[in-house]
Amino acid sequence: MSYGLIHSCVKEWVLNNYGKDKWKDILDISGADDEQTFLNFQCYPDKATLDFIVIVVKHLEISLEYFLEGVGMHFVDFTIEKGYGEMLHTLGRTFHAFLDNLDYLHCYLMTTAFPGIVMPSFACTEDDEDPDVLFVDYYSRREGLEALAIGALRGCAKNFYNLSVRFEVMWTKAEKINETEVVNHVRFKVTQVGQIDSPTLDLVTMERAKSAHDEVTSFPAVDQLLELVWRTPTFNYENVERFKNLVFQFAVEPRRTAAALEREKDKTDRLLHSMLPPEVAHKLKSGDRVQRRASTAPPVGELSLLFSDIVTFTVIASRCQPHQIVQLLNEMYTRFDDATESNGVYKVETIGDAYMVVGGIPSRVPDHATRVVSQAIDMVRLAQEVAHPITGAPVQIRVGIHTGPAVAGVVGQKMPRYCLFGDTVNVASRMESHGVPGRIHLSADCKRKLDEERGPFAVEPRGGIEIKGKGHMETFFVASVGNSEAGGEPEGGTSASNGAAGGSVRQKESSVCRLQ
Prior knowledge:
Layout: E1 2-3, H1 4-30, E2 43-44, H2 46-60, H3 64-81, H4 85-89, H5 95-111, E3 121-126, E4 133-140, H6 146-161, E5 163-176, E6 182-195, H7 220-225, E7 226-230, H8 237-242, E8 249-252, H9 254-273, H10 278-285, E9 302-310, H11 313-319, H12 322-343, E10 346-351, E11 354-359, H13 368-383, E12 397-405, E13 407-411, E14 417-421, H14 423-433, E15 440-443, H15 444-453, E16 457-467, E17 471-481, E18 484-485
Helix pairs in contact: 1-2, 1-3, 3-6, 12-13
């Protein structure tokens, strides 16, 4: 396709060089309409344009090459008259720079004033031996129009750089650019033969540095995500090198991109849900500022809250290297985290060796006490799979659980956290700190809730004890689960009759370094 701008340029060239009578004869022979056939911004098929050119050349009795070169030179004057001169002149300070940037102009015109137009491509290199010589590679899907390109480039050199240049065709060949299309490749030798009114042409003579990209032959990541829409050569290194000044335009391939975006969204969601409850994360993503309501939110209702800590952790921390502590906690907490998924509870946070779990929020469930006690039993068992970094024996933990009301919400704007507030948090912490190694210590409220849920746990009374900040409280231990014991032998020789539940202790080497 070509625009009527070319036909108007042909008309002006004929009128300027051969007069009105010749032009009228050409119209009569071709059957063209002087008013309708030459609308500047109307598209015409290439065949219609070429057929008209054949009539012009035949009637004027001139060669096709003479006609094309003359029209090419006049086309520059024609575009200047139409107001495009300043835009063309800004392409480069020198003729070499102009040639290097010509493809960018074609890309701009194709996407703005002349959509759908098929433009040629140009690439320019220097002659290492003669600074007045340039080699210009011209690529076009239209065969036999190199004389038109010569005329246009000569016109640009004259009008914008006051430069007289000579063109020699070095060779012409057809090159395959994809599975179905062939492009006509012509190499010109362009020699500066004089200046009309300007300094010597400032040619760039720097040799292109060899790049690591010279070995690249394909671009798989680009091919997978994007579709080349302009131009149509196969997107490989050979064509990128061939059309080095060409702007390649890509369109996002909807299905593949949608799938890739969905995978990335899943990754982001998994990361977000590892830090915030999914229900809370959805609210935040939808613009519901949960943290604004945390301080005024009504109690979320009854929930069960668990705290645990590592027995003798202070001694371990004082006698181990920091990286050993990190390895110890990572080994144990990774196991605990997996257990929260199977038990349907939510990990609130870890602070040092303290691990905090809640059941009943953010998802409301009726059996939250049973779920949290199941988590506690798993934690006691899983802790024994990690070796004590000092003694080599299985690690023991204390666990405390309390059931009661609390306030929950997201606090902070940077690194927001889902937090619980209320006396239930304090009591659960006291259950843990007043507990016994290897045992699961329950408040009376938690036992009551377990009874209501008819869970599979045997619970034994511990008796009344003084709890800091709360006074005298009746508390309980989890004794067994069905026919299985619920814990291991407590550290320091505490007997199984004192409530240490559980199966056999598996002493296995941990990746945590033992002290010698």
